[in-house]
Amino acid sequence: MTESTTVTADPEVVSLINTICADLAQTAQVPQDGSLNQDAWETLSQSGLLSLTDTNDPQSLAHAATLAEAIAHHRLAIPSGEHDIMSKWVGQTVGLDLDATALVITTEVDRDGRSTRVPWARHAQTFVALSRTGEGLGISVVTSDDVEITPGLNHAGDARDAIKIDPAALASAERVDPTLGDALRVRGAYLRAAQIVGAMNAAVEASLQYASEREQFGRPIAKFPLVQRMLVESVNESQLGAAAVDHATLVVADPQATDSDKTMAVAIARSVVAHAAGAVTRHAHQVHGAIGTTAEHPLHFSTQAMEAWASEFGSTAHWESLISEHLRATTQPVWDLIS
Amino acid sequence: MAGLKAFQPVHETPALAQLRLSVRKRIDELAQQGAFEPTVDPWITGWDRSFSELIAREGWVGMTIPTEYGGHGRTFLDRYVVTEELLAAGAPVAAHWFADRQIAPALLKHGTAEQKADILPRIARGELMFAIGMSEPDTGSDLASVRTRATPQSGGGWQISGTKIWTSGAHHADKILMLARSGAVSEDRHAGLSQFIVDLDSPGITVRPIPAADGRHHFNEVFFDAVSVGDDAVLGTVGNGWAQVMGELAFERSGPERFLTALPILQSSVDAIRSGQPSRDDVSRHFARMATLRRMSYSVANDIERAVPVDVAAGIVKILGTTLEGDVVQAALVHADTDSTPMPDALRRALTSRASFTLRGGTNEVLQGVIAKSVGARG
Description:
Structural class of chain A: alpha+beta
Number of helices of chain B: 13
Number of domains of chain A: 2
Strand order of the largest sheet of chain A: 1-3-4-7
Distance between the termini of chain B: 15 Å
Oligomer: heterodimer
Strand content of chain A: 5-15%
Order of helices and strands of chain A: HHHHEEEEEEHEHEEHHHHH
Largest sheet of chain A: 4 strands, mixed
Radius of gyration of chain A: 20 Å
Strand order of the largest sheet of chain B: 1-4-5-8
Order of helices and strands of chain B: HHHHHHEEEEEEEEHHHHHHH
Helix content of chain B: 40-55%
Number of strands of chain A: 9
Radius of gyration of chain B: 21 Å
Helix content of chain A: 40-55%
Shape of chain B: globular
Distance between the termini of chain A: 18 Å
Shape of chain A: globular
Number of helices of chain A: 11
Structural class of chain B: alpha+beta
Strand content of chain B: 5-15%
Largest sheet of chain B: 4 strands, mixed
């Protein structure tokens, strides 16, 4: 490998994804009641963009992450990442035969088959359930007929439902590598980081747009140096967040990387992205003024999503405590750890 | 640019990874042998001619200079990797820093055959040290307002008069690359500026030290009183100084010195939690940001190698990197308890130099202007 472009997203695929998502956003509402955008799901599914994952091709993760970012940017209500980056990956890793088109949600369940705050569960046709057994970790593929759903929502209005799977459906669980549960949580956390980058870009774009149109004291507010400073800080932080996620993509997709490498790259991304999102949110609302605080203005679709996602698949504090543990557990100089 | 990624992730190639390991190992040996004492801010304050000559013999100075000029014909990324390792080790690289980082690329781009043949081999041997003369007492961020005057002489050559200030290392360096006004002030503020390479022992030059708040001396004021130089002192084209200087800035702004200066401070905070002190959120957070900034800086280096324009990306790295450096130092100060032991020397030094992090190489406010313009927030 002389030049490593193989694992970064193909610019043509990126452009295709952005075009399709922007088109879908023209007509889409942002529901905050947990519903799913069927049109968007079907369009993306027919384009093959909902089953990009190929564990033999590291570039596929870069494409799947690009899609998750673009969907988050436009707040299209579809769980591409839960379906593709999580479930399809588990399916390929373990060798499950999963239907390619209908939503598959993967989650850990307790001995009674229960799990809480499961993303998009009410829309899933299939569940992949990871259950702790006496001897280790078991995996079962369950259809929605065997699952009882109690609807719930997250802070941004995405479906986060409680589920109870009929224990009989888990009885013949196959044993899998016990580290699969942790690896799946890392991928979930990575997905949320990528989504936050998408929402952050939307908030920055909206701020730049608004500041160039909104006039006060006879000129666009973007002409005021103090406003420019907020805009520039927002641009800088969003680029930092994107760089952290893009690096995590390289590591998570790298067949040579260890689980610990992947966990640390995702922990770093989650820390960086969470604080970047905090700065962008503060500035975006300050730039937008009162209108940005209203239900009718779309800014909150991005800012609330960032807040919601930053506290899923582990809090920011959780990921930062993992960084701390990692720093404590080794004697390697800091430089060796970041170079 | 919002939404567009200014930083492409880069995987280190096996060849670069190999270079990094061998350099790291050798620096370790040199440190063991007592060839240098690790220092904070080593590219500004670590002036050590014999160390520069020593590492020049290792092939680590003038790496990108072609072999025909005594250099090593290596890529910009090779140099980047070596520079990172030297800075991370706190090695005293100040003596050859400006010559290696800016003068060599500027000469390769704009120099005459004679200038290149004369100067580049000596840079590559680590024996010719440069200072950079940009700021003046009345010219800081507004660089186009320089007043130092270069007047053409009737018999050929130039006479230079004026004052440069905040000139790091001018009291040790052999030559200075300076910006002077060579033509009339016109509507176009950027016209009429030229770059000159001047021997610092020329008659008419006086160097006055400006000690920093902790008493250390790297800043100087350099007075030019009717200093005569030949036409061969001009770098590039007369009147094209502004464009030439702007071209150097990307090299200057995105390098590893923009986030690694505070590395020893972050390392001591990590050492503290390793020795049993309670975990600190700020350490995890700063570690995460530093790791990411390092990726961004590497990405800019990769773009420079491929001749992709990087002025905005370099500005972003410098703003975020130098701000982080200040945050790391502040966090260490928050945890410093000097009731039983004195403040560690590294922290004292960092506290003095932290005020410079966000100033040198173009203030962060000037760079914010560059970024604001690029995203259409400023006309």
